[in-house]
Amino acid sequence: MNAQNIASTLSDLVSRELSNKEPSPVTSQERQMAEYLADTVKLMVSGQKVDYDEKTTIDFAGFTDEEDSEGEEQHEEEEVDEDWTNKELVLEKYDLKSFSEDFMRQVIDFVDQAGPGSKHGRSWKAIHHRFRTIPNRHYIPQFRKYLEHHGTKRQKTQNLDELLYKKLIDAREKSLAVHDLDIQRWGLRIAREIKLEEFRASHGWLENFKARHRLASHKITNFLSHHQVANRDAIEKSKQDFLKEYHKISSHFKPSETLNTDQTGVEKELHSSRTITFIGEKKTFGAVQSKNATTHSYTLQPTISLDGKLLATIYLCLQEPGDKLCII
């Protein structure tokens, strides 16, 4: 596929079908959306398979998916690009594949640790006496060149992993839903920022990243509004204060006088029901624009007493245009 053709066709479609608004300065959110679309096109053009019914993004609301982790389709076998082999340095003349990176580093450390009286480093005789598997002295500069180049790429790869993991933690702390495509898109963006050339957010790299950090797709069990996410500490303190007050005064009331009420309703807002998160997590949270809209269009509100009796009266609450609830 030709990325230029895709971009040109997309521009024509947008101009023809969504041209009812006047031109305006580009906002940061609009630029972020454009970067997301560009990354998505890049993934598709590179030949990777994108399953739209399983992927979504956390940056913009209005998308939904129903991921099935158990029946996930097997992707084509791809090369794992987590730790590349530097093909330019593995020359036919110098078969560096025969030597491990640790061995090369030991050799270079030995060469560089020559005595204070040495002007040219250790002699080849001393080196070969210590490391007899090295065929000749010309391997030494090749070892050094390999370590310098490969070490830089390895460090950048580690930096990418750390930055991506930090971004993932930040997203989950905000209860944002994360999917495979999000991780791949973040990886490509970070690779550009740290100038990590040749990086491809392949399926193999993605699976290694998820396995290394114990990540898996979970069904979201609890939804939080953005207001709740931002005020989680205050909500926790309010809960603890309520429990203290309850235990202080509950002995003054009969079980039949202690009531608990809750609501059940119908969804109004479409939302993602799964996210990639940490294995072993007891509760999996997901942030939505309106928590009420994910569970309510109207609500039935039954009440039960502490002695286990259901009250006869059930409240039916309807959402009004002015965001007020009336009781019928």
Automatic annotation (TrEMBL):
Region (Disordered): 1-31
Presence of keyword Nucleotide-binding: no
Pfam families cross-referenced by the UniProt entry: HTH_Tnp_Tc5
A Gene Ontology molecular function term of the record: DNA binding
InterPro entries linked: Homeodomain-like_sf, HTH_CenpB_DNA-bd_dom
Domain HTH CENPB-type: 148-219
UniProt biased composition (Polar residues): 1-12, 21-31
Keywords: DNA-binding
Top-rank lineage group of the source organism: Eukaryota
Protein name listed in UniProt: HTH CENPB-type domain-containing protein
Organism the protein comes from: Didymodactylos carnosus
